[in-house]
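Example (one chain per record):
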Amino acid sequence: MPEQQLRVPWIDTLRGLAIILMVPANLAPYFAEPHPIWFRILGSFAAPTFIMLSAGMIVMRGEKHNLSYYLKRGGIVLGVGMLLDMLLWKIFPFTSFDVLYPIGLAMPLLYLLRRTDSRELLYISIIIILATYVLQALVGYHAEPLEVYFDDMWTPSVVRLLQSWFVDGWFPVFPWLGYAFIGALFFRTLFAEGTGTSHHFITLGAGLTVIGFVLLFAPIPFIRNIADGTILVTREGYSEIFYPPTFAYIFTSIGIVILSSTLLRRMTFNPTHSVLGFFGRHSMMVYILHQVIGSLVVEPIVNGYGEESITSGPIFTLVNISVLAVIALICFIIETLKYRYPPRSTVLQVLIGR
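Predicted structure:
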């Protein structure tokens, strides 16, 4: 059966929406600081969307595959993250902990736990989120992530390496693996719902979002948020509001994913005419390409003009549109070719779809 018939249009649309938010967020180092707060907030919801969706698809389709299938796909996702670290950023893999790392690690783990009771999935998620706060309080959160460059080699201590993996890497196990469990719980429940459940999810998603925004901006004692300045303004040029992840951010991001998923599921999409759906179908390729274009094209052009960053908002917007246009053209060519020559290898299927 053609891949187009196997896909769920609203999920591709949600993925595509996350991509539209992800690209400017990851090009932020080339945008002059300070970044507007709306820009920082919008760019902060791509990562939880991707992680929760990836987990949801595993528990929904797990019965069609075996452990070997998810070990292989998870290994490929990890491999892509490692190659980007080594070839693009010139750093040793598994030091800074890219977003693809928790996604790749979660794939076989969630396959093994796909039949776990919903209540137990919720308990695991809560434990991971609470452990995030405890670990940050006990060992601290480094403003500068651990990155060991090839041209500046040094050996981090085991303790510092573990801190990066679990506490203060770009996307550490705590709390990002928790998003995978929440995604597995939410999407399994959403797809298995009877009539009327969507209304409850809308209420839940809206409630969590409102609570999250209050916690983000209200000066509440003992709550780390934007109001008290404990969230980093930028981290090596990236300005998402999850450095470090806080209860405020976690509430908000989970609420937004639940709310947007439930609303999109109620809508009707034509998968052949949806721009967001098109990007969603090529999410892995978009992730790779926008990183490569940013590092090898955007940065050299900016530096070529004698600038450290783009100071104009409209120009930065034009740059993002141009990057997305180039990526769309490449993905269109790939999609045309793959229908003529369907990819057989698992690696190609992960990168460009079946």
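Caption: Residues 313-340 form the longest helix (28 residues).
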